[in-house]
Specification:
The structure is a single chain. By secondary structure, this protein is mostly beta strands. It has one domain: Umud Fragment, subunit A (Ribbon), CATH 2.10.109. The protein is built from 1 helix and 9 strands. A 7-stranded antiparallel beta sheet has the order 1-2-3-7-4-5-6, with no helix packed on it. Strands 8-9 form a two-stranded antiparallel ribbon.
């Protein structure tokens, strides 16, 4: 299985208008995500808001309190987490804390000339 990670970033361009909102941060997906129903791609940027209620169906960023343990999961009806894109779900030995709810996803597309377009 390929290794996937989330990395904190600063954003510019059109996304910068959301960067100053309290509790909102941005994470970029690194690696080669597993092919699943989420349709994640390397380079996807996620806007994540902290301090909002988590509901069934939400895509969340969870962690164990250490930055390198950031992972994505989908919240199930029983409020358990299912790992997505190759990220594992939390384990009993590694209790999870919700870092925030994904409130937006930005993706860059390559134009025919190879230039990136958001």
């Amino acid at each position: 299985m390929a290794v996937v990670t989330l990395e904190s970033i600063s954003v510019g361009g059109k996304a910068a208008q959301f960067a100053d909102r309290p509790g909102t941060s941005f994470l970029v997906l690194r690696g080669d995500p597993a092919d699943d129903q989420e349709g994640l791609c390397a380079g996807d940027v996620f806007a994540v808001t902290e301090g909002v209620d988590v509901e069934a169906g939400d895509l969340v960023v969870w962690w164990t309190g250490v930055e390198r343990t950031l992972a994505l999961a989908r919240v199930q009806a029983d409020l358990s987490f299912t790992g997505v894109g190759g990220f594992p779900p939390p384990s009993d030995e590694q209790p999870a804390r919700v870092r925030g709810v994904v409130v937006g996803r930005l993706r860059q597309f390559l134009q025919e000339d190879g230039a990136a377009e958001a």
